[in-house]
Design brief:
single chain, 7-stranded mixed beta sheet
């Protein structure tokens, strides 16, 4: 199984980006999917999660600005990021807990918020 993340880039403060992460390989289903991020000099931190029933959870720092969603038919998880701030600058990693079994990470996509 491989995860391919995309959608990062340079955006001005207040702007928006949509990240995508597609899983490929032997995938029978999903447990949870999530996004994490790692800023320069900092540890990787959890951003958002979506569980099999569709419920979502967010870190306080992004609540109300970011939305995680998925398309199971496309093995894809998304992260819609609005009202971006300079402190959102980081490499964003997708995570999937996949059936028949295994936890996988994408390669990371850079998000830079700067004027």
């Amino acid at each position: 199984v491989q995860l391919q993340a995309s959608g990062g880039g340079l955006v001005q403060p207040g702007g928006s980006l949509r990240l995508s992460c597609v899983g490929s390989g032997t995938i029978f289903g999903f447990k949870d999917m999530a996004w994490y991020r790692q800023a320069p000099g900092k540890q990787r931190e959890w951003v958002a999660r979506i569980v099999p029933g569709g419920s979502t959870n967010y870190a306080d720092s992004v609540k109300g600005r970011f939305t995680i969603s998925r398309d199971i038919t496309k093995n894809t998880v998304y992260l819609q990021m609005n009202s971006l701030k300079p402190e959102d600058t980081a490499v964003y990693y997708c995570y999937m807990n996949i059936l028949p079994g295994g936890e996988y990470w994408g390669q990371g996509t850079q998000v830079t918020v700067s004027s």
